[in-house]
Write a structure and sequence with these properties.
Keywords: Cell cycle, Cell division, GTP-binding, Magnesium, Metal-binding, Nucleotide-binding, Septation. The protein is α/β, with parallel strands linked by helices. It is built from 6 helices and 7 strands; from the N terminus they run H-E-E-H-E-E-H-E-H-E-H-E-H. The chain starts with 9 loop residues before the first helix and ends with a helix.
Length: about 210
Amino acid sequence: MTSDEYEYPALQIEDGRKLFASEVNFVKGVVNMQGLPPADRPEIAFAGRSNVGKSSLINALFNRKQLARASGQPGRTQEINFFTILEALYVVDLPGYGFAKAPKAVVDKWTNFTQTYLRGRTNLQRVFLLIDSRRGVGDVDRGIMKVLDRAALNYQIVLTKADKLKKSELDKVIDDAVVAIKKNPAAHPRIMLTSAEKNIGLPELKAEIVALL
């Protein structure tokens, strides 16, 4: 099932709108487990390949232009960035995976750190796994899905840049994603369709997030 096939209750849509219109603050950028903020509130995380449109989506959710900053070179962001809404929810921007113009040792270090975070963060409610609609679910995405499955950590596929494809092309990407999640026990059964540029699916994604609170 995709988000456009499910009708979110109007109250939930409105609660999501209010939540993401509230005060949001950058907390810190973290480079090791010792630097993580206290696990004292619910937490959601956004993960995805480099260039998947993660920063654009986070900025669009909050209606901010520069809240999450994209690096000029894919794969350069090596920090886990924490934001908080009303001091009630952490929103976490994870480093992009799958491509990096950085030494292998550096890439391995922040990849291991990210995976350790995903396995050990007790207050993490859900990971939103961003997939570029134009690429579909790739091998590197399946690798991250396996990490999340082993950690028994709930995650949900969010297809980005949905406006860039014809309906027939998008339908095939959705079908392939449905097949992928059927093989992964920790995956949420509903797939989100979004476009930060066209505001597609953002009210539904906000509603999905507010329900976790």
